Fold this sequence. Notes:
- This protein has a domain at 3-174: 3-Layer(aba) Sandwich (Carbamate kinase), CATH 3.40.1160.10.
- The chain is built from 13 helices and 20 strands.
- It has helices at residues 16-31, 46-57, 63-70, 72-87, 119-126, 153-163, 197-205, 213-222, 275-285, 315-323, 326-329, 356-366, 390-400, and strands spanning 3-8, 35-40, 92-95, 102-104, 113-116, 130-134, 137-139, 145-147, 168-173, 194-196, 226-230, 238-241, 254-258, 261-270, 290-295, 303-311, 333-337, 340-346, 373-377, 380-386.
- The strands form five sheets. An eight-stranded mixed sheet has the order 3-6-2-1-9-11-12-10, sandwiched between helices. Strands 13-18-20-19 form a four-stranded antiparallel sheet.
- It is globular, with a radius of gyration of 24 Å.
- The two termini are 37 Å apart.
- Pfam families: AA_kinase, ACT, ACT_9.
Amino acid sequence: MARIVMKFGGTSVADMTRIKAVAERVKREVDAGNEVAVVVSAMSGETNKLVAYAREAAPMHDAREYDAVVASGEQVTAGLTALALQAIGVNARSWLGWQIPLRTDGVHGKARILGIDTDDLIKRMKDGQFPVVAGFQGLGPDNRITTLGRGGSDTSAVALAAALHADRCDIFTDVDGVYTTDPRIVTKARKLDKITYEEMLEMASLGAKVLQTRSVELAMNHGVRVQVLSSFMDAPGTLVVDEGEIVEQQVVSGIAYSKDEAKITLVKVADRPGIAAGIFGPLADAAINVDMIVQNVSEDGKSTDLTFTVTKVDLDRTVQVLESRKAELAYKAITPDPNVVKISVIGVGMRSHAGVAQTMFKTLADRGINIQVISTSEIKISVLINEEYTELALRALHTAYGLDAA
Ligand code: ASP
Ligand code: MG
């Protein structure tokens, strides 16, 4: 007997036919004698609709009421899934965040989980009941409903799996696993049987939108074995596990890309102490996240070019902030460029292999693709290139690192 958390995303509970299929899938694990806790998202499209209502009611809405509205999508699916399970003879009961309770901080709209009281849940499970938990929602310090940020039901599921000491957390979604890269672009992309937490974290934060990044962090910190698999077919998915579990580690496991970023260059900015702080301090104050930064050594000792990236949505604000500081920063010009893509090769094997970056640079050079910015970390090399080469670069790198399906 195993204790399993089964989480179903929006497309898996999109209508009653699918909710009934979910119930059948859960029943199979129940019939196999497992202890099962289910976590559900809102029906697909539902949260977007609720967010739009809240915006329409008041553009500068009160975050507490926003949460009261958007958390309701999960309440509906928890109840319907419990009903569908009961209809096929499974003793199921819905649980809302506050009923468990799943405690969070008070940051409405993107609350963090503080703790889950599992006493009641475990007691009921021991009595043969199967909980169906509404994902995405919790209870704040003032006893008001909170939500965990978009995609947050992944985090609900992993947190519940950690609190219940579950053997596995199965995340059912509309793809059948984690791929070496986006299969819509690279037809030779392969499904990975296993991926390490660290690699998954990089893939998730770089735009492979299979799992909410925070859920992966949580799984890594608590050693929760996560499996990403499709609810539409009956096949094993991708296991997200500790490095030690992967016997034959590829040097590069996956290639991610993000078109969310824009590049900004400050031309001939003064080269003296305090300038970087004078640029990035005000951006941080404006809650603008900066990702890649490159600054060259100045030739004349007076000025240099400085390039960095921000998300596309922050581009105009970034330019505004910098323009308001022109006198102090003494730069010659600002050149914003939204037509870039960040491509990253990821793999824990990089730690112990040389030449990984060179393969990337050479592959891109052979295709005549110019690299604008480079940044590296222990398990990742990222380059910024012109957006129009996204497909060409992904395909070429996928082949170069030996990732193509046979
Ligand atoms: N329903 C929420 C959303 O769409 C939470 C989730 O599905 O993970 O963001
Ligand atoms: Mg999701």
